[in-house]
Structures are given as C-alpha cells and as structure tokens.
Amino acid sequence: MTFIVVEGPEGAGKSTLVRWLAERFQADGRPVVTVREPGGTPVAEAARKVVLHFPHDLAAAEELFLFLAARAHVVRTVIRPALEAGHVVLADRFELSTMAYQVAGGGLPYDEVVRANRLATGGLVSDLTLVLDVPVAVGRERQRAARKVQDRIERQDDAFHRRVLEAYRTARGPGVVHIDAAQSKKAVQDAAWREVMTVTALSTRGVS
Ligand code: T5A
After folding, report:
1. What structural domains does the chain harbor?
2. Is the CB of 15 under 6 A from ligand 1?
C-alpha cells in the first residue's frame, strides 16, 4: 500500500501526471485508486462546489474548513480503505495544498493549520509527494490554452500565486520530491516514475 500525492501550482500538470501514473500502475497489474482534492466523494464534491464556485466572499479560515471537511471525508471513506485493501492511492493535491494556499497565500497561522489538518486526516501522511514546479505565468498560460474556467482561488492576484509557488518551492520533508514541470510531459513522467519506483520498492509501511 502506497500513498502518492501530486502537488504544485495551477496548471503545473498534476492531473495529467496522475492520469498517466494510474495507467502506468494498471499496465503493471497494480490496483490503483485516484482521488482529486477537493473532491472524490459526494460530501467532498459538495464542499468543492461551495469553496470554488459559489459566488460568495469567503475568508481564508472559512475556505480552510471547507477544504478540511472534504479531506476528512475522502480520507475516511476512500483513501484509508483503499490503502488497507493494498491499493496504491494517487491523490491530485493533499495537505501541502492547504499549506501553500491557505497559509502562504491566505495568511493563516502555520501551526494551527498543521493541527487542524492532522485532525482531518487522522495523521495520514503520504509516502511520496511529487511537487511539480512551473512559473506562475507558464501554469496560467497552460490553463488558458486548455480553456479552463477560472475558479474563485485561481482568480486571486499574481502576488497570491507567487506566495503559493514559493511555499511549494521551499517545501521540504520526508518523501517530498521536486520535479521541474516546465519540461516536456515525457520528461516529467520519467522523473516521476523513477521516484515512484524507489518508494514502491521500499514501501513496507502500514496505515498510521
Ligand atoms: N486548493 C485545494 C486550496 O486552496 N487548498 C486545498 O487544500 C486544496 C486541496 C483546486 C483549487 O483548490 C485549491 C487549489 C486550486 O485553486 P483544481 O481545478 O482541482 O482546483 O486544480 P488545479 O490545480 O487548479 O487544476 P489544473 O487543471 O488547473 O492544473 P493541473 O492539474 O496542474 O494541470 P493539468 O494536468 O490539468 O494540465 C493543464 C494543461 O497543461 C498541459 C495539459 O495537457 C493541460 O492542457 N500540460 C502540459 N503542457 C506542456 N508540458 C507539460 N509538461 C504539461 N503537463 C500538462
């Protein structure tokens, strides 16, 4: 059982990489479950609609609890059961998104958010977090080219998104690996797969 998270700023290529990794695992006959955050359960999808698409002003603390409610539900009902069943779980965003967007971007206090997140996840941590690094302008251009409709958080100004990117760039910790995502999709996939192979070979962990 291996829990792999793909992180990074807007348009970095997270969903593209998660899809590719899922296909790669399936081709190897490894059962895999993918989730995107916020989302992945009816409760989490409802929270996603409110936090990203409702036309109301939300303060950073209000956003935080919507993201954490979504995370708590998907961890309890999807991620933990899948890990316990021996599946690989691939998550498109997890805890680091909260630290980048609500703490670095929104200005919430680091330690309190760490504690709130721990309450939501019951202490679940990833085995590997792949942080995709692209400049803000490159990510925005990719989203434009893909005709993505901007959500409430994506409409934040460039200064907010630069703080988010800086938080990702300075993120360190067990299992955190940075990948230059301005490279071709193939180069990103190759780099990611090398990291995944190292972790899945070593992974003997249980669910905490
Ligand atoms: N949020 C989330 C918080 O604030 N706090 C939290 O705790 C959590 C969990 C989620 C929003 O919620 C916020 C962050 C977000 O603002 P979302 O729509 O689920 O929003 O996620 P986004 O990251 O915004 O999704 P995007 O689709 O915009 O970005 P991706 O997934 O990084 O990019 P992807 O894979 O869709 O690719 C975008 C385009 O680029 C191309 C793809 O083909 C696609 O067209 N591409 C590349 N092009 C060239 N070279 C490469 N290497 C490429 N890789 C992909």
Report:
1. 2-202 (3.40.50.300)
2. yes
